[in-house]
Amino acid sequence: MNNDRRPLASRDTSWAQAIARRLAATSLTPDHVSQLSMLAAAIAGGCYLLAGHSEGWVRGAWLVLAVLGCQGRLLCNLFDGMLAIESGKASAEGAFWNEVPDRVSDTLILVAVGYATSEPALGWAAAALAILTAYVRAFGQACGQAADFIGPMAKPHRMALLTGATLLSLFAPLWDGRNELLLAALWLIAIGSLVTAWRRGRRLRLAMAKTMPKTMPQDITKDG
Q1: Residue 206 has what DSSP assignment?
Q2: Domain range holding 156?
Q3: Smallest Cα–Cα separation from 109: which of 167, 45, 173?
């Protein structure tokens, strides 16, 4: 098992493997799928913005489309890896397309929710903290450590929470005019991402301390 891959139960399901085989038979590459994830996130973000300025069934329709966009983003994240590893279509640029689109997607979705709930600063903060969790993981990998996908607010958790809050807000009473459920989800994502970054950072420091040589070489910049 590759320790640098996010553990996903859906990867081993029959439906996911069947779809991956169909995709592998096309000219589609993992990098293309990764790029499509940004399109799905842009659709989700746009729908959240429109929902924030709509009422009634129109608002509900935009929220449903936003959920589909969030889930489409996750499906792209699932199948780009399966195409690259299981189907042997990995490219030299794969590492770039595996990371950058996710950071763009988080920003597009979370910032849009912030504006939709009239709390743009919170949206930007949630996006920045989400990126921080990924930065700590990627920095650990650059230091030779295994990828750490621990939560409580890793990417799948963020999207699951936001999806749940969005679906619940469809049935919220009339007083939910300012999308309070979405606002609560955004707060939880921001705080949870901060906790996640702290946990990953602490585990990384401990892992680095264990692998550090017990006897440090003499500083060659000093005399003697």
Answers
A1: H
A2: 11-210
A3: 45
Q: What is the pLDDT of residues 104-152, one digit of tens each?
A: 999 999 999 999 999 999 999 999 999 999 999 999 999 999 999 999 9
Q: Token match 């799905």: residue?
A: 40
Number of structural domains the chain divides into: 1
The span from the CA of 18 to the CA of 222, in Å, is 62
What residues contact 126, with CB distance under 8 A and at least 6 apart?
110, 113, 114, 186, 189, 190, 193
Inform me whether the pLDDT recorded for 173 exceeds 90. no
The model scores a pTM over 0.85: yes
CATH number at residue 23: 1.20.120.1760
Does 29 fall in a domain?
Answer: yes
Within-domain flag for 65? yes
Closest CA to 140 of 210, 213, 82: 210
Residue 199 CA to residue 149 CA, distance in Å, equals 10
Q: Do the domain assignments include residue 83?
A: yes
